[in-house]
Amino acid sequence: MRSNKINNIDLFTSSANDKFTKHIKTQSKQALEIINNKINWTKLLRPLEETIKKTKQNNSPAGRRTFDLLVIVKCFILQSIYNLSDPRLEEEIADRRSFQIFLGLNSSDSIPDETTICRYRELFATLELDKKLFYEFNKQLTELKLIVGKGTIVDATIKQAHAKPNSNRDNDADFTIKRGKTYYGYKGHIAIDEDSQVIKSVEFTKASIHDSNAFDQLVDYSEQAIFADKAYANKTRRNKLEAIGIFDGILAKGYRNKPLSKSEKKVNKLLSTIRNKVERPFAYMKQVLQYQQCSYYDIGRNRFEFIMCAFVYNIRRLITLST
């Protein structure tokens, strides 16, 4: 039977880890140290543990070995930050001291293998623990006053499916057309705080769902202002914002028999300087996290992947805004 324990007692004791912490200051290790210290892990994970306990699914979906939920969530964070497959994540944990310290593993500990990671991902997707994890972390950001709630910016991005069209491997993905080009996959929807650019809320849908259909799930209508591109413009929504007293920062939309006036174009240009901030999280996911397209063949696990990237982006914002 294969063993996935860290089998080097001389190198991987707590004492050795302490020395490693003191003498080797790599950028990667320092980032993981900051993440470890900035997050209240106990508070973050307690609601997830309670959900798993209530469903009585905490043993069977995760395989024979059971791991502390903290280790699993940190594995997901490492996977998102470094763009690692399940097999590669297992290898990197075995090889990289900084990963082992971040996970709190010593020489006598087993490391989660690729099957365990896969099964826990399925558990998170099925129970929507990814959403719970994201919003529990946002509660900490709110307590730190990093989510102010004065202004909200809404947008969506298309994520190409892992499966090819007509392959019958992904029954959840479907088609959409943007600027005359056809895409097959999903959409990730976000709302960010205008001031901090922290992602406040997330949704994940099939690609065919219009951007504006997720609007009500992304905003709570307690904001002072809401900004979005012209895809979200409609008379009913504008009337609702006006009635509540929320500033309407949705770009004006021209129609075939009613093009935009010069004043409307000018206002759109001014609003776009604010609205464009919402592109930064998507750029971070794509360029830094290398989240180019979906990795799985169903909406649940692909939603998990998108939300974990949003979670990591918010961790990045926490580090940036608090240092």
Could you list some keywords that capture this structure?
323 residues; alpha/beta; 6-stranded mixed sheet; 6 strands; 49% helix; globular
CA-based gyration radius: 22 Å
Query: Judging from the principal axes of the Cα atoms, what is the shape?
Result: globular
Count the domains.
Answer: 2
- Give the end-to-end Cα distance, rounded to a whole number of Å: 47 Å
Extended strand count: 6
User: What is the mean predicted local confidence, pLDDT?
Assistant: 90
Number of helices: 13
Largest sheet: number of strands, sense, barrel closure: 6 strands, mixed
- Category by helix and strand content: alpha/beta
Low-confidence stretches: 6-14
Helical proportion? 40-55%
What share of residues are in beta strands?
5-15%
Order of helices and strands: HHHHHHHHEEEEHEHEHHH
